[in-house]
Amino acid sequence: MKGLTLAHLYPHEMNIYGDTGNVLVLRKRLEWRGIPVRVVPVAVGDELPRDTDILLGGGGQDAAQGDIGADFVTRGSALRAMADDGVVMLAICGSYQLLGHEFITKDGEHIAGVSVLDVVTKGSDHRLIGNNHVETEWGTLVGFENHSGLTELGAGTTALGRAATGRGNNGSDLTEGAVRGNVFGTYLHGPVLAKSPGFADELLRRALSRQGASQALEPLDDSLALAAAKVAVGRPR
Ligand code: GLN
Questions:
Q1: Which atom number of ligand 1 is nearest to the Cα of residue 189?
Q2: Which of 79, 81, 136, 173 stands the most exposed, by the fewest C-beta atoms within 10 Å?
């Protein structure tokens, strides 16, 4: 089996609230199954691996988004082509915002996005902070959010799910995240995949299926992760 290449965007700048853990979760879930995996960090100026199967980006402060913004926007056509070609993407909070058209910070700075997702984000003085879980068709995603950005979905854009306890995309329409094909954006930090093993495997299944490897993933013992998710879901906001 060829295995999978995980490209990890801006690991130094875009890794607040443990989001690099999403890379670790996917790597381990492949290793535990004996599936070869290569993790490639992509810093400012680095090439994106041409054989990327899963692209991951974490959250970042407004300043960090400004720091990587100019580099990120140069990758726009490559990222849009990858999305069109079915490359799996998981973008958390600040990375999610920059997969959209733009993020206008609460101070009025316009940080251009790459328009992979039809969303626009505007910063607000009120931060949306707290534990949250989201009901999706791939099970409950569990994490927490901390963002000033309020994201509006474009007309044809599907939400990842409904914000069960938190504020989600914008604190008013109860949507959380966005989905376009194999591209997933969410505000859930944590890392979200640590307590959402079903979703982690959905990402792996999609990446393997894109390679033509359609055999089912060997089940793993997720009892600890699911027990942690159950406790987290019961936590107050
Ligand atoms: N800086 C962005 C905001 O405040 C993203 C924050 C994050 O990635 N947690 O909305």
A1: 9
A2: 81
Per-residue pLDDT, averaged over 65-90, amounts to: 97
Contact 165, 131 (CB under 8 A): yes
Distance 94 CA to ligand 1 centre (A): 5
Relative to the CA of 121, which ligand 1 atom is closest? Answer: 10
Enclosing domain of residue 136: 4-233
CATH code of the domain containing 88: 3.40.50.880
Report whether pLDDT(228) > 90: yes
Å from CA of 62 to ligand 1 middle: 6
Are β-strands 139-153 and 110-112 bridged in parallel, bridged antiparallel, or unpaired? unpaired
Count of domains forming the chain: 1
pLDDT at 164 over 90: no
